[in-house]
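Aim 2 progress update. The chain analyzed this quarter is reproduced below.
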Amino acid sequence: MSAITCPKCGRQVESMPGVPANFCTRCGTPTTSDAIRERIVHLMALGLQDDIRKAVERLEHDEPEKYGRLAAIIAGEIQ
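Predicted structure tokens:
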């Protein structure tokens, strides 16, 4: 395991080899650079967007009369 020091509380934050410790386990302070945190948030947002898209597609398929317009709005076909 590799360890880094928390910039806020000074605790040694351990992580598995090859896996960065993104937050201090004691105080929650981010231990990664801003660029890495921004990338994590971006990937999470993409995952949520994909989940929402799939859920709307499923609703549109199962109940088109009820959710077809919602799917069209989300797809950008209707404003």
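Helices lie at 34-62, 64-74. The radius of gyration is 20 Å. These observations will guide the mutagenesis experiments scheduled for the next reporting period.
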